[in-house]
Amino acid sequence: LGAKPGKKPGKKGLPIAVDILIVFLLLAVIAGIAWGVYKLVDYYATEYVQREISYTLLVQDADASIVLDEAGECVVLPDTVVYVSDQGQDTPIGEVTSVSVQQNEQGNVDVWIVVSNKANYNRKLGYFANQIKIAVGKTYTCRFSNLYSEAVIVELQLAEGES
After folding, report:
1. For 61-90, what is each residue's pLDDT tens digit?
2. Contact call for residues 128 and 55 (beta carbons, < 8 A)
3. For 131, phi and psi rounded to 5 degrees?
4. pLDDT of amino acid 145
């Protein structure tokens, strides 16, 4: 009653510890692949949500005779549309909500124009109004009513109630 001729008596196959190690390695490989696919989808997904934003454009050192009318009032008026001019095409990027003018030492004026708009937001790319990137520090050639000027965004905030 012993072993069959030609075969050694004892264990068959690999020890159980090696089997468990192989199972853990396979699970780790599957988990790594799943994590990689998740990260790729997260990286390439373009999830946009629409948010109400408000941002301040600053026109620095503008000629007072162009910015102010005969009565000394600013020609940029609330409730007018702001356009970004690029290669002969004007793209609307919001509506003026308020304007503030301050005379500087050179006799010219600095104009702060607060603009509000709905913008598409992506957590990796930022805010876009009609496919124009809205970010603090960006400079644009803008048209406000009848005024064309370079303006830089100096402040950006979400409208109240947005998160």
Report:
1. 988 888 888 888 888 889 999 999 877 788
2. no
3. 65, 15
4. 76
Instruction: Give Dmax over CA atoms of the chain in angstroms.
Output: 119
Q: What's the predicted TM-score (pTM) here?
A: 0.69
pLDDT of residue 92: 94
Which parts of the chain have pLDDT scores under 70? 1-14, 45-46, 160-163
DSSP assignment string, 11-77: --SS-HHHHHHHHHHHHHHHHHHHHHHHHHHHHH----EEEEEEEEEEEEEE-HHHHB-TTS-BS--
Radius of gyration of the chain (CA): 32
Given this model, what pLDDT does residue 28 score?
96
Helix (H/G/I), strand (E/B), else coil: 46: coil
DSSP string, 59-109: EEEE-HHHHB-TTS-BS--TT-EEEEEETTEEEEEEEEEEEEEEE-TTS-E
Q: What is residue 10's DSSP assignment?
A: S
| Both structure tokens of 75 | 């020609």
Contact between 111 and 74 (Cβ < 8 Å): yes
